[in-house]
Amino acid sequence: MRLAARSKPKARIPTASMADIAFLLIIFFMVTITFEVDKTQVNLPKTVVRKEVPKHAAYISITEAGQIRVSSGEEISVPVAGPEDVLSFATGVVAQDPSKAFVLKADRKVPYRNVDRVIDALKQSKARVIYLLSNQKTVEDTGQGQGGGEGG
Amino acid sequence: MRFKRKMKSAEIPTSSMADIAFLLIIYFMVTTTFAATRGLDFALPKDEDNPPIVEKEESVLIDIQPDGSYVVDHHPMALDQILDYLKPKLERNPTKPVIIKPEPTAPYGAMVDAFDELRQAKDKIGIEIKNISIPTQREIDQFWY
User: Fold this and answer.
1) The Cα angle at residue A47 between residues B97 and A148, in degrees rounded to 5
2) pTM score of the predicted model
3) Binning pLDDT at 50, 70 and 90, where does residue B110 land?
4) Cα angle A137-A141-A143, degrees, rounded to a multiple of 5
5) B81 touches chain A (CB under 8 A)
6) pLDDT tens-digit profile of B77-90?
7) Which positions 63-102 of A are in contact with B (Cβ < 8 Å)?
């Protein structure tokens, strides 16, 4: 007598929970993603005191070479020729929204002269508040950073 | 004779869902940038045409040299010594103005370091510096001399 063949269990990798894990990660990234307003690469100064920059603030970036770019809050920033253009840009922004905050994203090695002209343009345009964008200063930075800047 | 039909089990095809999900994860991982969204706030005077007149000798002047070093009231000083120097002056007059005046060729980072140090006065020496000003070169030329 021939016995019926035993039903063999199929070999399976349990993938049912994989989608759950994947979607959990997707939700995490969707929640934490921030679209950087200005993508100019600069070496920001480091500070201990740091306040959250308001959303939709206007950005002015100054690279180490002194190149200035402006953005009224959009992702794409546009280069400008000099501080005179910053004044006309800031005046336009303030005319539309007098309480608009400005974020100054300047390289820590840039000569202060360049920053001074931009701040002066913002003062003349009647801007109310500027945020000097910075990175977090750590304990190691505090130990090394004493005695001022790192030179020009 | 009765035939035995093999019943197919009802299943939603989810095998491709993980592929789609991982594709989305990779997209988010690649596009995520950890942008700096914090900084030192710096309120500007409301009326530029009528700045408050402050006697020069009443204020403390922090001069930032082109090499990034600090000269406070004509005394060369390290960054961590500035608050100790200011403490007795602020105890006598809590509204004493402190002026940061960087040289045109001084690095911007040195100005931010000094400003950050002054903003930490409440934590470090227990007195808040209420009056910190960073005049621009135009203001110095126009109102100072």
Assistant:
1) 70
2) 0.74
3) very high
4) 130
5) no
6) 999 999 999 999 88
7) none
